[in-house]
Design brief:
This protein is α+β, with helices and mostly antiparallel strands and about 400 residues long. The chain is about 50% helix and about 15% strand. It folds into 3 domains: about 10-140, GAF domain (Beta-Lactamase, 2-Layer Sandwich), CATH 3.30.450; about 175-310, Alpha-Beta Plaits; about 325-400, Orthogonal Bundle (Arc Repressor Mutant, subunit A). A 5-stranded antiparallel beta sheet has the order 2-1-5-4-3, with helices on one face. InterPro entries: CdaR-like_regulators (IPR051448), CdaR_GGDEF (IPR041522), PucR_C-HTH_dom (IPR025736), PucR_C-HTH_sf (IPR042070). Belongs to the CdaR family. It holds the Pfam family HTH_30.
Amino acid sequence: MTAWGGEADDIRLLVDELAELLGRSVVVNDPLVRQIYGSRHFEDEDPVRIRAVLQHEIGAEVTAHVLDQDIPHWPGAGRLPGAPALGLLPRWCVPLRADGGFLGTIMVIDAGQTLTGTEKAAIDDCAHAVADLLAARAQVADARRGERDRALRGLFGADDGDREAAVETLRDSGFPDRAQLVAMVVEVTSMRHSDAQLELALRHARSTVEAAGRTPGLGLVTGSRIELVQHRPSAPATGALRETAGRIRHGLVRALGPQAGIVAGIGSPVTALARVRTAHRQAVVAVRAARRLPALDGVAAWDELGGDAPLLSLPDDLPPGAPAARALQALDAHDAGPRLRETLRAYLEHAGSAPRTARALNLHRTSLYYRLNQIRELTGYDLDSGDDRFALHLQLRIEALAPRA
């Protein structure tokens, strides 16, 4: 099996014929530099080629080196520089393209730059044929997924009619409707990878989930996200769901490298397909939490967000200039602004208890009262008022949960 999900017999014939003609090793890689097919060796292999054969991967550092060459934007064939420290010899590299899309590369080791013009032309001819085969295979795979993807869009969407139709479609296909159903969203951000590379990595993650033995599911790739629904025979613990999300993230890290930002959000389990949309919306909010709160280590579960859950559900474009926001800005404008903010936050988090706040800040109580009076004067808010304390505390939490610049 290949990274593209099918036997590579037709590609094998083309690549083996080219390799015999050149008397050199030839490799076809997908956009993430994962091998689709490699010819036999001609005593020209390097450590990277050997690792690809034995371990079915070339390693994160070599992958990063290749991706840094920005091959998807090359105008045509070119020379991939070697990396001696990584055991990588220089290669002649031809981008594989069809209908403007980048499908991968053909690479031939050429340490001595001895390929002739005729040989390079033969590589180009093979590349065009392989690209056509890959494009046709992807088109067939996309057609097969069409109905399933439409059903998942309906299941996650807001239209009641589409959702009812989606439930019927999934029931008819044999997807359980009375198991414990879990919605999960995994999101990737990366400046290094093209849209095609991100989509390929997400599709591979989806195929891994759909082929799982004990917890199979379905997935929809939308932009930089994969939106999943899995079914389980019994109610899963949050810890088990976090482990599942962690495995998906780990697979994406292996494909894209540690520089890619990969986060996952998990909704509460539900017991009917008609309720999956609620769980999906929760998972989307949990993704926000995973992206914004480093302490969550990239995975957030709705059931663990507590009071932050409704705040994270707020739109990012709230109208500016809320009264409590202006009050905090007045603190910030003061010379002692950071210290007063810290004092206010501690006071509110300790339920307005002066003794506990003083201990937490290691302050004499007289100093604490002086700071609280400053806060009252600068903000105009009465810290003895429950409503005023709530407004300030809410604004502090909203700001803490806002998207990071």
